[in-house]
Amino acid sequence: MEEFFTLPFKISFVLDEMLLFIASLVLLITCFWLIISRNLIESIIIMSVFSLFIGICYLFMDAPDVAMTETALGACLSTCVLLNVAKIVGEDTGKLKKLNTLLAAILCSFFVVILTWISLDLPSFGTQDSEVQTHLTKYYLQNTRTDIAIPSFVAAILASYRGYDTLGETTVILIAGLAVLVIVSRKNNHA
Amino acid sequence: MLKDFIVIKLILSFIIPYITLYAIYIQLNGEISPGGGFQAGVIFATGIIGYELVFGKEHFLRFISIKALLICSVMGVFLYAGTGVVSLIFSDNYLNYNSLQSNAIAGQHLGIFLIEIGVGLTVSSVMCLIYTLLRED
Predict the structure, then answer these.
(1) Which of A65, A84, A171 is nearest residue B134 as measured by Cβ atoms?
(2) What is the pLDDT of residues B82-99, one digit of tens each?
(3) Does any CB of chain A come closer than 8 Å to the CB of residue B76?
(4) Which residues of chain A lie closer than 8 angstroms to B116, CB-CB?
(5) What's this model's pTM, rounded to 2 decimal places?
(6) Residue A53 CB neighbour total at 10 angstroms
(7) How many angstroms separate the CA of residue A170 from the nearest CA in chain B?
(8) To the nearest whole angstrom, how far is the Cα of B35 from the nearest Cα of chain A?
């Protein structure tokens, strides 16, 4: 079991931590830039940069699957879709209806407080003796070799042990596509 | 229009085959390397959307229609759920791939391969569908 915990392409722990720190710093800067930016196109590009850098963070935290998804989906696909939507809406956001900013600010701070409070309960990154690592992960690590016998444990958990969850996720993606189709075709019929 | 810029057109035309090849690689090697159906589908959709950006919507819709994308996305979920139904027919649990072949491990490999293809099909076609629908004519 030992070879699954040590990766061969690990550069060095100190360099890894430093690069992760720099990427997190860039993330913070992009967040503040996003808050103060007033241009719609600029905001979309900053969100794309944010996705790219959080993908790099995921890669340093040994999650290449998540990094791949975040880079392709967040940095490329959603940027393309949002740019198209921005083209439809128009760059001038002044004529859009103003939302109640105070209510939105209170709601957002409420969410920040709640999420920070929840994150205090989470185990710190890479802890071996947390609740998840001792029961479920142990079972998967011990039984994947005999049950499924594929080297990628993530694929084994995703496709076989948690097949129902993945079926649900795929159905959710299909429903999202159908919902966009229904909304857009309704708009075209009325216009 | 983006297709008027010759540099962007040239670079994107050069890079799109490699993106597609990378997506197919991730799809087929989901069992031995990071990634799987979802990642492969998203990267494949990235390639298709790059093609659409370069050559325009009319050129893109000549090859694949919205109806075909819709059929592909439904087919993916159908393939996934159908794999489960096949194991039901062989008097096993739903989505338990042990009974798909005579050997339990070979059955697991086949089942995982099939459902990854289903996930990849659904994800790539839904991403292309959302992009194409929200594209301004």
Answers:
(1) A84
(2) 999 998 998 888 888 888
(3) yes
(4) 155, 159
(5) 0.85
(6) 21
(7) 6
(8) 5
Show the domain range for B129: 2-133
Contact between B134 and A84 (Cβ < 8 Å): yes
Asked whether the beta carbons of residue A184 and residue B36 sit closer than 8 angstroms, the reply is no
Q: Specify the pLDDT at position A2.
A: 41
- Choosing among A89, A170, A188, which should be mutated to test the B contact, i.e. which has the most B CBs within 10 A? A170
Cβ of B42 within 8 Å of Cβ of A73? The answer is yes
In angstroms, the CA B101 to CA B46 distance is 35
Tokens of A15: 């360099």
Query: Into how many domains does chain B fold?
Result: 1
Burial class for A120, CB neighbours closer than 10 Å (0-12, 13-18, 19+):
exposed
Those residues with Cβ within 8 angstroms of residue A13's Cβ, 6 or more apart along the chain or in another chain: none
pLDDT, tens digit, for every residue of B27-41? 998 888 888 889 999
- Residue spans of the domains in chain A: they are 1-92, 127-191
- Smallest CA-to-CA distance from B66 within A178, A84, A170, A87 is with A178
